Amino acid sequence: MKIFRHAVILLFIVCLILPLTAFGADKTKVAIIPFKINSPEKLDYLEGAIYDMIASRLSIDDNITVMERTTVVRALGKDYETATTVENAESIGRRLGADYVILGSLTKLGEAFSIDAKMFNVNKKEQSTAVFAQGSGLDALIPKINEFARNMNFKILGYIPKEGVAGYMGEQVENPNFIFATRDLMSKSDFRKSPFWNIQIKGVDVGDIDGDGVNECVEIDRNELWVYKRGKEEFELFATFKGRGANNFLSLDILDMNKNGKAEVFITNVDKGRLASFVIEYNATKKVFERIDKSIALFFRAFKLPGKETVMLCQRMMMDGSFYGGLHKVEIERGNYVAGLTVDLPEGTGIFGITLPADITGEGISTIARVAVDNHLQIRDMSGAVRWTNKDYWGGTINYFSTTEKEEKKPGGADVDVVSGDVYVAGRVLVTDLNHDNILEVLVPKNISKTMNLLPKFRLYETSEIYNLQWDGLNLSENWRSRLIEGYVADFQLKDVDSDGIDELVVAVLYSPEMTALIPAKSGVLIYELNF
Question: How confident is the model at residue 436 (pLDDT cuts 50, 70, 90)?
Fold first, then answer.
């Protein structure tokens, strides 16, 4: 009897131990390789701080075990002092007995910093997730670490743990093309893309060009325009328009202003340093574009707010190439497109890189969102005062024109000096309400530069993202963003490209710029379905 009782007790203990052992064996082991710090300053302490930040965020869930830093350093041996790359991450992971290896670097020059981090799946021999982010001031580093940790948690667990709650099955991220920060606003879908085109794309828009009730997708580069219809293929070439060699198309906007059922195409164009914009319209009988107004000394840009009609605005240019005066509604007078009524905007507002006034903060006050010259995103009130800004870099553009002042006579007959310079054209920023909750959102691209905007005359953007932001009472906070796009976002739109009654996110991407005549540029268009 005693033997039987002991056997029962032993069996009970084994039953308790086995699940715990199995649970422990199923834990995912993560090794964090010490980050490489690149800076003229002595910032060695950041290497340990980055480890602690990542480790603490991954350890929230009991299903992940982060290996001790000393264990990792000891196992690395001589490799600890050398740059660790993705190429040898697999062998390091196997040496450590880890399922995942995290490695990266932090670069800091002055106040600007960039962090380049990657996570490698040892068993699948592939990179699982990565982040390249930049900002100003080390206080902006923590949100970047949080963002990377969320991505890592989702890749490992399939869900994002709620901070402080182990095993919490957080919100499931369904759409593989978008990363959600607060809530799932989008149903599962995929993206479509155009073929690669050997052009250096500068703008994209969508509208009914030929009046058949079906929208077309229109693109421009420096001095050419292409129209694509949707037929058997997603992009079937329908029409083209070619400008002069000296033309520099800066922006593209489409709107049926003359109400004839066919959308006019507004091209902001600079020719030898002077504004020479024009409006063209498709002649369905001749099957060609015709200029219906030309040599217009105005910048054009179309704007739309949720629930309101699209409006075409314009602005004049000063002799030095800067934006002059206020913004005006475009009006048609005797067949010509002219500056009409002035729009109420903060003094000194340029036509590009802004939104129309709207209640962005939900406080019943009209404000505008704006990407400033230094690429910081701002919210300004109608007096021009900055109500909010942050230290991240937003927008980012390689679209510019060179301007040369005309020679003018000084009193006495002397000529003034000829002055030239480059004027950069900020990209599009949109105000929208995609989930129809009556709370406005801001859509803005973020083109990512490894030069961290330190060299204004040298602009190279290799990757990009589109962000959906919303006011949370203190800041414009992220709702969602696109997956990393390998290329530079030249322009984007929220338009119904496939004429199904639902707007899509249409993104013009420059994958690689033109290097020489033998190495042309490579561009294309991405289309994301937004089903809310």
Answer: confident
d(CA 417, CA 198): 39
Q: CB under 8 Å to 518, separation ≥6 — which residues?
A: none
* Least-confidence region, from 137-146, 204-213, 291-300, 399-408: 399-408
Structure tokens at 415: 């000529």
Q: Is the pLDDT of residue 482 over 60?
A: yes
Nearest alpha carbon to residue 136 among 488, 467, 452:
452
Greatest Cα pair distance, the chain, in angstroms, is: 125
Residue 279 is given by DSSP the state E
Over residues 44-76, the pLDDT tens digits come to 888 888 888 888 888 888 888 999 888 888 887
461 in Cβ contact with 448 (< 8 Å): yes
Degrees (nearest 5) of the Cα angle 326, 329, 332?
135
For residue 177, how many other CB atoms are within 10 A of its CB? Answer: 17
Contacts of 420 (CB under 8 A, 6+ apart): 273, 402, 403, 404, 405
The reported pTM is 0.67
Cα 471 to chain centroid, rounded: 18
The HSE-up count of residue 85 (CA atoms within 13 Å, CB side) is 2
Q: Which tokens sit at 418? A: 């000829």
Sign of the Cα pseudo-torsion (230, 236, 241, 245, in order)? positive
| 418: DSSP letter | P
Nearest to 461 by CA among 510, 423, 520: 510
CA distance from start to end of the chain: 68
Report residue 475 as tokens.
């800041």
3-class SS string, 428-474: CCEEECCCCCCCCEEEEEEEEECCCCCCCCCCCEEEEEEEEEEECCC
Return the H-helix or E-strand segment holding 49. Answer: helix 45-58
pLDDT of amino acid 25:
46
Render pLDDT for 311-362 as a digit per residue (tens, 0 to 9). 999 999 987 777 889 999 999 999 999 999 999 999 999 999 999 999 999 9
- CA distances from residue 164 to 15, 56, 346, 364 in whole angstroms, order as listed: 29, 10, 45, 36
**How many angstroms separate the CA atoms of 206 and 253, rounded?**
8
Please name which of 344, 430, 421, 358 lies closest in space to residue 394, comparing C-alpha atoms.
Answer: 430
